[in-house]
């Protein structure tokens, strides 16, 4: 269903609801008018025709039937035919017109009867209530028909317009023309009001539809976020002598960063981290695609270089123009706490030496994934970690986060935060790093996704 269909249905529902209120108003007015006629006849011995009250009660019964039809249409979501709505409102204006002609008090002078009878007053509330039809044309047509009907009733009662001797007309005779003009003008004024009310109703419906669509988008994004977060590993990998932990926080509901780890067939564990350009739902989909290619590639290829070539070839075919991803893989084994690092455009890679209390930074060995069909990477970096040594992989969302003055958190502060927490477990080190960057930012908005992985050398289990 497109936006136009939704808007049309919503406006049709609003139109029927407004019509129901209009009919309720007309019914209440006609009922009060009938009661007033009965009271005048019984209490004040008025010579108004009591058949006028009977006629009004019949019309009230008809209005209640129409009210039922409108209520059913609202409940079932069906439409009422336009001809029925037009007939109903024209029938309503015919009621006071017939009242002027047939139910006026016979004691009123013929010249004054059309303008002195209370029936003529009933035309004005009906024109006023036509505003609730939310159709300016209806109000204008109603004003025109009310004016013409009133003139026809006056003619039926004996009023005549003499165009040759205009000055010879009495006050009562000229009052008929005046009343007709006021009725006509009332219809056009009601049309102006109806047009204004309609524009406000349409604006409100449009705003409600936009809000509904935004809530739907938020709902869809929340589902996408939960799916993306569920793809992140929840159980730390088991590598004797190494503790590994990762963490991710997208800037939006979804992001283009991810981390993962998966065991290889020879017992080693490969840890991966990627950063697709941009953040949001598009990069999130590409990040999930990259994760799938990485898992399948490392399952087929034991060599990290060959696996990266495989990822680049197939992932690059699926990337839109102008998109790429930085990617780093760390293959961990218990043998001498060995870690092989190979980066495609991701850097710097941080390696902390516990014995020297220093950091070494390594750049990428290849270009980012998806830029060229062939990766042409250098040899991977091979590390043998001593107790307390760490490999820290982090996306640029950490060190590029700016404070209010525009200064970035930077690499030095990142190293300082990790060094300060070096005695903690990997997940606690990441938490301290996040707290450090948040304290530095001092309330500025997170503009990029945050993802970090810490691989720490610990004593071998007995």
From TrEMBL:
Signal peptide bounds: none
Entries under SUPFAM superfamilies matching the protein: PP2C-like
UniProt-listed InterPro entries: Bact_Sigma-Reg, PPM-type-like_dom_sf, PPM-type_phosphatase-like_dom
UniProtKB keywords: Hydrolase, Membrane, Transmembrane, Transmembrane helix
SMART domains reported in the protein's UniProt record: PP2C_SIG (SM00331)
GO molecular function: phosphatase activity
Ranges annotated as spanning the membrane: 23-45, 51-71, 83-104, 116-134, 141-159, 171-193
Residue stretches making up the PPM-type phosphatase domain: 239-457
Protein name, entry field: Serine phosphatase RsbU, regulator of sigma subunit
Organism: Terriglobus roseus
């Amino acid at each position: 269903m497109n936006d136009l269909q939704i808007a049309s249905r919503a406006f049709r529902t609003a139109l029927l609801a407004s019509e129901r209120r209009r009919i309720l108003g007309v019914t209440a007015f006609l009922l009060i008018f009938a009661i007033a006629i009965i009271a005048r006849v019984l209490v004040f011995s008025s010579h108004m025709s009591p058949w006028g009250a009977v006629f009004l009660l019949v019309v009230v019964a008809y209005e209640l039937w129409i009210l039922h039809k409108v209520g059913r249409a609202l409940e079932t979501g069906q439409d009422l035919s336009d001809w029925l709505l037009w007939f109903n409102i024209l029938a309503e204006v015919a009621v006071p017109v017939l009242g002027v002609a047939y139910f006026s008090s016979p004691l009123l002078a013929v010249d004054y009867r059309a303008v002195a009878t209370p029936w003529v007053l009933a035309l004005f509330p009906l024109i006023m209530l036509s505003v609730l039809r939310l159709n300016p044309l209806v109000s204008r047509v109603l004003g025109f028909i009310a004016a013409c009907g009133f003139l026809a009733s006056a003619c039926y009662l004996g009023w005549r317009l003499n165009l040759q001797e205009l000055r010879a007309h009495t006050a009562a005779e000229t009052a008929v023309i005046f009343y007709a003009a006021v009725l006509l003008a009332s219809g056009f004024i009601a049309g102006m009001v109806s047009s204004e009310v309609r524009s406000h109703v349409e604006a409100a419906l449009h705003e409600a539809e936009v809000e509904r669509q935004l809530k739907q988008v938020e709902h869809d994004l929340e589902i996408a976020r939960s799916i993306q977060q569920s793809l992140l590993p929840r159980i730390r990998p088991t590598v004797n002598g190494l503790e590994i932990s990762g963490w991710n926080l997208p800037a939006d509901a979804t992001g283009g960063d991810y981390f993962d780890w998966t065991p290889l067939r020879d017992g080693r564990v490969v840890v991966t981290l990627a950063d697709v350009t941009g953040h949001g739902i598009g990069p999130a989909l590409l990040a999930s695609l990259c994760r799938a290619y990485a898992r399948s590639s490392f399952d087929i290829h034991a060599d990290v270089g060959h696996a990266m070539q495989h990822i680049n070839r197939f992932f690059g075919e699926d990337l839109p123009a102008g998109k790429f991803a930085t990617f780093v893989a760390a293959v961990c084994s218990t043998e001498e706490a060995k870690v092989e690092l190979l980066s495609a455009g991701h850097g710097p890679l941080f390696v902390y030496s516990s014995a020297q209390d220093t950091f070494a930074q390594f750049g990428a060995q290849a270009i980012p994934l998806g830029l060229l069909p062939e990766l042409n990477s250098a040899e991977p970096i091979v590390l043998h970690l001593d107790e307390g040594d760490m490999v820290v992989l982090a996306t640029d969302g950490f060190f590029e986060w700016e404070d209010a003055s525009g200064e970035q958190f930077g690499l030095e502060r990142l190293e300082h935060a990790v060094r300060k927490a070096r005695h903690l477990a990997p997940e606690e080190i990441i938490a301290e790093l996040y707290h450090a960057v948040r304290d530095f930012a001092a309330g500025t908005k997170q503009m990029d996704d945050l993802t970090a992985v810490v691989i720490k050398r610990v004593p071998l289990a007995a």
